[in-house]
Structure to design on (567 residues):
């Protein structure tokens, strides 16, 4: 198997064909200085962002550029180009066009370019002869790399992705299991069928292909009369089986993809409980991202999956084949009895990251699930199963600190960041609050009203209408002003009855004058209270009525000595 292995800083930068030799040498020296503190993947990403996304992009759009001191317009144009990336879209007529889509990693590129400029400034203090002539103002400010809003957007995007995929996960599980069983039955039936004969499994009828004598006997082909295509049943069965195995192990453990591919026969260990003596099967996860190994309890469902995998790859003599694995750090690991391995021609090979993703895509194509955001086929990545595992575990009562230990996070906030917050949680909590309040109130308040009670309730509002407006007092409460509505603050005056209220006010004024003239002082006080209420209702109507303000007609202002333009 041909593998590139780990590249040197020179090889990492030369992949992007940088034309300016001094800048190319600077980037190589920078990578060499950073190399001892970075793992290979981080070094490779740094070379990509600095070499391809930063400098090579500047050379393509500004030929001849040879300095890190970027003009403001050049830096602004580069940042604008970094925000989007081209993506090929196929129209209804089959025409393929490139459309710009947002680039998710643009902020990561800005951070690395800013760190590059600041590192040069810091190193120039220690070794000015080597770095000082490269020190220039950084084209990226601190505000450009603010992470608070970016983190919130990333969290919202990942939560939405989890909420879309977790409810349909049972569909994917059923589909991959059905594909595994169907493909296995087709392969078994084809092996028992003579070339040229037809065989049927379920609703599929195939014809075993007649091959030339030089074709390898290990591969079994069949012709599909409905589509006219020739199918490799052995490869279909293999892809279906390993897609099922990947989905089951990922959803039951929440491990990372590199941890999944490093599970070996030796990873299965036993632990005896000191209290009861019960033997508990454990799955040992090799150190990966955090360089800390951990142990997971093997559930009966996971044990069945692992047992099926071991039975498939075990040699007739008994042991699991030893295969070397090409690590995600681009180094060869010593041979080990890995569980995720498959036969390739005459040898066994470890399954790699790219093959896992191809198997998942092939399995998802059979589910007919679509992404609600864009209508495309729904896509699952191996890391989606990790987010769904954490979300499902915490929602079903697992303490977040225990989930942190299971998935191997060093910070509890990272675990909580993986957990998608469902609106259903807020809804259920609100319904529980309402239920508690309802349980504390008299039960007769929630009985069904009788016809008489309902008629009385509707008639109550009909009896609220008075000559000057509406009464707004609560249902089934008496009038505290003995139906003197103009005195009541709950009286809502009707603007259409403005003239009637004015007439009542004028009548009250006349009655007050008559009472004062005749010496009926006992009535004066009551009439004055009613007058104040009438004036208040008129003021309420005036406040609610639209008022028109006349601005007049503007007239020109002439100076003492008009100019020619004025004339």
């Amino acid at each position: 198997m041909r593998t590139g292995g780990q590249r040197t800083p020179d090889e990492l930068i030369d992949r992007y064909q940088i034309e300016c030799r001094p800048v190319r040498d600077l980037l190589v020296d920078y990578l060499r200085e950073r190399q001892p503190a970075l793992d290979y993947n981080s070094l490779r990403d740094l070379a990509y962002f600095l070499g391809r996304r930063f400098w090579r992009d500047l050379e393509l759009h500004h030929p001849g550029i040879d300095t890190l001191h970027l003009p403001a317009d050049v830096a602004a144009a580069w940042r604008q180009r970094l925000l989007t990336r081209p993506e090929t879209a196929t129209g209804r007529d089959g025409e393929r066009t490139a459309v710009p889509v947002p680039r998710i990693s643009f902020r990561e590129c800005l951070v690395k370019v800013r760190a590059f400029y600041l590192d040069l400034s810091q190193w120039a203090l220690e070794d000015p002869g080597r770095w000082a002539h490269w020190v220039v103002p950084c084209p990226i400010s601190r505000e450009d790399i603010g992470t608070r809003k970016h983190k919130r957007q990333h969290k919202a995007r990942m939560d939405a992705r989890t909420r879309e995929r977790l409810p349909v996960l049972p569909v994917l599980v059923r589909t991959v299991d059905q594909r595994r069983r169907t493909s296995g039955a087709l392969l078994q039936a084809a092996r028992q069928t003579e070339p040229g004969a037809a065989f049927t499994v379920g609703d599929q009828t195939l014809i075993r292909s007649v091959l030339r004598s030089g074709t390898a006997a290990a591969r079994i082909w069949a012709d599909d009369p409905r589509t006219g295509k020739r199918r490799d049943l052995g490869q279909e069965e293999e892809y279906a089986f390993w897609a099922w195995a990947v989905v089951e192990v990922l959803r039951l453990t929440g491990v990372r993809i590199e941890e999944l591919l490093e599970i070996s026969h030796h990873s299965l260990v036993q632990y005896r409980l000191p209290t009861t003596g019960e033997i508990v099967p454990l799955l040992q996860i090799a150190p990966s991202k955090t360089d800390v190994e951990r142990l997971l309890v093997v559930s009966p469902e996971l044990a069945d999956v692992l047992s099926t995998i071991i039975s498939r790859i075990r040699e007739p003599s008994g042991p699991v084949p030893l295969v070397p694995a090409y690590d995600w750090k681009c180094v060869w690991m010593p041979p080990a009895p890995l569980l995720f391995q498959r036969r390739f021609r005459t040898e066994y090979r470890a399954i790699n990251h790219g093959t896992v993703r191809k198997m998942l895509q092939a399995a998802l194509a059979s589910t007919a699930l679509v992404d609600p955001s864009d209508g495309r086929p729904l896509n699952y990545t191996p890391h989606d199963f990790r987010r769904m595992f954490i979300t499902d575990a915490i929602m079903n009562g697992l303490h977040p600190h225990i989930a942190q230990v299971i998935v191997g996070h060093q910070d509890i906030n990272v675990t909580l960041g993986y957990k998608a917050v469902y609106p259903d949680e807020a809804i259920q909590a609100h319904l529980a609050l309402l239920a508690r309040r309802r349980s504390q109130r008299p039960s007769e308040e929630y009985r069904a009203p009788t016809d008489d009670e309902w008629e009385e309730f509707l008639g109550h509002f009909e009896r609220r209408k008075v000559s000057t407006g509406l009464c707004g007092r609560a249902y089934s409460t008496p009038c505290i002003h003995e139906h003197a509505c103009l005195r009541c603050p709950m009286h809502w005056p009707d603007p259409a009855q403005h003239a009637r209220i004015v007439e009542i006010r004028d009548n009250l004024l006349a009655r007050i004058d008559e009472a004062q003239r005749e010496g009926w002082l006992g009535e004066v006080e009551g009439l004055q209270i009613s007058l104040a209420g009438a004036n208040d209702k008129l003021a309420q109507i005036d406040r609610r009525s639209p008022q028109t303000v006349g601005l007049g007609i503007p007239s020109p202002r002439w100076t003492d000595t008009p100019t020619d333009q004025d004339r």
